[in-house]
User: Fold this.
Amino acid sequence: MSRKLQIEELNRISPEEFREAKKTPLVVVLDNVRSLHNIGSVFRSSDAFLVEAVYLCGISSTPPNAEIHKTALGAEFTVQWQYVEETLDALAELKTAGYTLLAVEQAENSIMLPNLSVEKDKKYAVVLGNEVKGVQQSVVDFCDETVELPQFGTKHSLNVSVAAGIVIWEMAMRLR
Assistant:
């Protein structure tokens, strides 16, 4: 049997240590994500895997916000973030800074996430979209690649925060 660890035994880094820690060369861009709980969940996953930053675009709300905090549990204070009204403006800034842009979307010629070639010396930005409409077509068009999560059941999509968690984990494992 395994004894559950107490919070004090987890040896987590402090918020100050988080700020100084070497980050995963990954930025998460939320394109018009409307649910505050989804946004908070993305912050929490981003904290767990030392993501560089979260860009909140369009209708995506920003901290401080009690509903974001419910699922972020303080990660909105550790992970760097910025609001950019137009997603394409955020992506142009990231592209200029040398990031490879990946839209997470079901699209023609998408690359299944397990088949994505990731180079450890590159920086990546992953774009996740609105809960109903997904990533805007203009944003998909601007990105370097479109990445898709393989699914095998009857549903055609995953919750955006679940998809983000999967993509963040996979990218972090490959880039760290």
